Amino acid sequence: MPAGQQPPSHQQPTDRYTDESGSMVYFVSPQHRWFCGFSVPDPGSVGCSGAMPSNAPAVTKDFGDHAVVRPNGVRLAHGSPAAFIFTNDSAYLNQEALPLEYGDTLTVGFMTCSVDPHTGVTCSEGQHGFRVSADSYQLS
User: Fold this and answer.
1) Pairing verdict, β 10-11 and 104-108
2) 27 within 8 A of 11, measured Cβ to Cβ
3) What is the pTM of this model?
4) CA 127 to mean position of chain CA atoms
5) Which end of the chain is more exposed for a tag (fewer CB within 10 A), N or C?
């Protein structure tokens, strides 16, 4: 493969990544830097936890003291722009999640995610989505 060219994308079957309850679809990046999960019930959402970039904007916790803190996750909800979040639960963390290999994609409903060794995790639905790595991000 020529230098700089990405390998072809391979759509992965969702059932390989679905938890026992059938309500979440989990994956982890190949180097275990990003733990991500799709909520399966419609309309659904997808989010990831990992080392957020240092320039990610602070967020207000939606529980407890409602303090302004550094985000520990990013979320894309159906029909809405992506946003950084702070969560106190493990909604996107599943230690038994299978890796989504570089060049592969995973689609649940209308949301699709992929992982790239240079740009991190990208998830999108229509015009909305996020790309996040330890060094940079893009939300839409």
Assistant:
1) parallel
2) no
3) 0.86
4) 16
5) N
The number of beta carbons lying within 10 Å of the beta carbon of residue 54 is 9
Max intra-chain CA distance, the chain: 52
CA distance 23 to 44: 10
Tens digits of residue pLDDT in 93-127 = 787 899 999 999 999 989 999 999 999 999 999 99
Residue tagged 């592969």 (tokens): 104
Please answer whether residues 97 and 10 qualify as being in contact, where contact means their C-beta atoms are separated by less than 8 angstroms: no
Cβ 132 vs Cβ 48: under 8 Å: yes
Give 3-state DSSP helix, strand, coil % of the chain, rounded to 5.
0, 40, 55
Q: Judge whether 137 and 74 are in contact, CB under 8 Å.
A: yes
